[in-house]
Amino acid sequence: xxxxxxxxxxxxxxxxxxRRLNAEPAESGARLFRAYVALAAAGFRRYATYRQAxxxxxxxxxxxxxxxxxxxxxxLDAGARTVAGYDEPQLATFVWAGQGLIGVVLxxxxxxxxxxxxxxxxxxxLLRPIDPVWQLLAADLGRAGxxxxxxxxxxxxxxxxxxxxxxxxxxxxxxLFVMSVVLAxxxxxxxxFLVNAAAYWLLDARGPNTLWTLTSGILGGLYFPVWFFPDxxxxxxxxxxxxxxxxxxxxxxxxxxxxxxxxxELLGVQAAWVVGILALCQWVQARGERKLVIQGG
Amino acid sequence: MADATLAAYRHLLSAQVxxxxxxxxxxxxxxxxxxxxxxxxxxxxxxxxxxxxxxxGFGFAEVFLMTALAGCAxxxxxxxxxxVERLRQYVRSGLFDVLLVRPLSSLAQLAxxxxxxxxxxxxxxxxxxxxxxxxxxxxxxxxxxxGLLVATPVAGAMIFGAIFVATAxxxxxxxxxxxxxxxxxxxxxxxxxxxxxxxxxLFRRLFAYAIGFAFVAYYPTLxxxxxxxxxxxxxxxxxxxxxxxxxxxxxxxxxxRSGVRHYRSSxx
Lengths: 297, 268
Fold this sequence. Notes:
Order of helices and strands of chain A: EHHHHHHHHHHHHHHE
Oligomer: heterodimer
Number of helices of chain A: 14
């Protein structure tokens, strides 16, 4: 019941280094690893309990699959056999696997973390003797694992029943696709984390969240492949922005667009973004902790 | 009495707008984002026409007008009642009780309490796009057409508004319905932006005719530009949107009423 008369408490968290000193010496790699596995398993279980929400999301993604594919199909019907390097089955796989990927990478999410930052609840995360970014990432990967089994499979099965989907010719493609999806999930996690972390400064991350929703959709290959843009622009987007690493690249890998070399290069771009964005997350988190205000109470 | 009611709504509304503009940086980003949603719809059409000369038998100018009309209609509905989708939280927490004990309409209160002032950006952009698109498509300027051009976004907004309300009502029966309503609201926007000729027969019957989305932009555009319908509908259908809109609103109101009757608080 701290009234307005009180100035808010500014709490300066110890630097990461200090916290490590405080941690038990037995905080060895193996124990830390087990903690992250437990967090991932918890992420998986948490989403496994939201069964109705999962069904609702699959239905919605499927409806949009029909809407998006109709537009792309109409583009092909206008005459050309291929468009931007995709033929009809490839476009079908692009759309339907894309609708499934939305749930795996979790393109849109509620700004939970931002809300925790605003209320000060985030302090619980910070008190744990493990890194705040890695613990969220571990939980998110667990969530993604559950989404693969449900939200990815749902739209793909419906798409396969109604349309002729492109099945990858090389066995290697499946392996590359799995790798690409893992990388995409991490890049998307990083982007969502950064959007939410804006709350350390703005308190309300809804604006940044809106901007992310917009740009990730149109520049990332969700509404149409980024190759619908002029080639040079598409190339710049892929290399210089994280958005295509979330949707476009895994889907290009899956439908085997372009040469194998090109696809391996795309995976390299994704990997570079994983490293870059996680480094950025760590940096932002360290700066944000110093801005954090625990609202009076 | 009527004055007092109006004043109550005005207070609810202004309190909302004030609270939403408190975090200024975030609000500014929100307004920019809201405009960007409109830009994005138009950009989508431009990019698609970069790779194809025609879509479902229609050229860029015609599809652009459909997109503009749909976008403008959606912006009005989204601003006014878009946030009824938050009804879910009200039902889950039992907060809906608060609306029921006040001597005001529960739906109107919900709309006023959650008005999304940031969405004015999208509305302004939507209106501008309708003017630009009509000029670009060289719409013949006659009083009847100008009237139709103004009436279409209004009727479209009523149709979208009815869909927003009807789908939000699902929360009375199914709280965990999640984003399922988006399939019809945002999905409806995607659907109406393009000519209905591009969709499969089953999907078209469901969305265009059963729900009435063909009357948001497709038929009015045909009438505005004197285009015969490739699917063979009579030309007069373009002027039927207001009638469809009114019946959609009536249907939504009935669904809402039965939903409210079904509400049984949270028990806490």
